[in-house]
Amino acid sequence: MAFMKRNLNGSRRHPMAAILVIAAGLAVSGGGYAAATAAVESKPASAALSQAQVDEGHKLFLSNCASCHGKNAEGTTNAPSLIGVGSAAVEFQVGTGRMPAQASGPQIMAKPSQFTQEQTDALAAYVASLAPGPSAPTADQVAPNGNAQRGGELFRINCAMCHNAVGAGGALTQGKFAPNLTNSSGSVIYEAMLTGPQNMPVFNDANLTPTDKKDIITYLTYVQTHPSAGGYELGNLGPVVEGLFVWIFALGFIIAITIWLGAKSN
Q1: How far apart are CA 151 and CA 208, in angstroms?
Q2: 245's torsion region: left (phi>0), alpha (psi -120 to 50) or beta?
Q3: From CA 198, how far away is CA 192, in angstroms rounded?
């Protein structure tokens, strides 16, 4: 055993061992650099397009957003910093017309966007270049081909207390409200869950996985495309509206019939 130990120790201290280690390290690092260079050089057009988008987005930002968010998106007393919000926040806010905002108030209202999709993408690319942040979802992530039943359960657990069980929206405190989701696209719904705009909490991938988000989008898409099977849904606003309808119209009709019968008998 002592002889074998001396041999092993001797082989570790052999001068050729250091040379072999250095040569292996150079081979690995050189090979990795060559592979990375080949990958970059294989997509020169897309890289140039991305930088062109960033430059165009910077110009749009300076002319439309910098007065509130600062020239470097660092934020001001009038608006928060956009560093680290990612492209998803820009796609949501600008794509739904909430930004640029027309006026301050309890809640920024959605309106037709003043930018084209190309301009929105450029703004998103510029803001995303400032710091890492949530990315806008892909077409596959928002495709309504998940599990609608499971999505309905997740929606009722996480969202229905504000948005109503079928996404019809609802009132909040201090003049705020949860918007109606009956016309919202899958991308808007995903981006809202990912970024938590205004009063909405953030549902990142640790809270709701991409599969969970896809299932919720599938459920809401089903609700949007399948009207109520039980008749007129009264705005899908729930039992309060239904109860009010019964009290005003049904009981009112009964009272009117009672009065008419009493008058006729006299």
Answers
A1: 11
A2: alpha
A3: 10
DSSP per-residue letters across the chain: -HHHHHHHHHHHT-HHHHHHHHHHHHHHHHHHHHHHHHHHHT-HHHHHHHHHHHHHHHHHHHHHTHHHH-TTS---SSS---TT-HHHHHHHHHHTT-SS-SS-SSSPPP---SS-HHHHHHHHHHHHHHS--PPPPPHHHH-S-S-HHHHHHHHHHHTHHHH-TTS--EE-STT-EEPP-TT--HHHHHHHHHH--TTSPP--TTTS-HHHHHHHHHHHHHHHHS--TTS--GGG--HHHHHHHIIIIIHHHHHHHHHHHHHHH-
- Residues carrying CATH 1.10.760.10, the chain: 46-130, 139-230
Query: Does domain 139-230 fall into CATH 1.10.760.10?
Result: yes
Q: Identify the residue with better confidence: 105 or 52.
A: 52
pLDDT of 38 above 50: no
Give the global pTM.
Answer: 0.71
Half-sphere exposure of 87 (CA within 13 A, CB side): 18
Tokens of 160: 């229905």
Place of tokens 């019809």: 168
What is the C-alpha to C-alpha distance for residues 6 and 221, in angstroms, rounded to an integer? 73
CA pair distance 131, 85, nearest whole angstrom: 8
C-alpha 264: how far from its chain's center?
64
Q: What CATH number matches the domain at 46-130, 2.60.40.1180, 1.10.150.110, 1.10.760.10, 1.10.1670.10?
A: 1.10.760.10
The percentage of residues in the chain with a pLDDT greater than 70, rounded to a whole number, is 76
Neighbours of 171 (CB within 10 A): 9
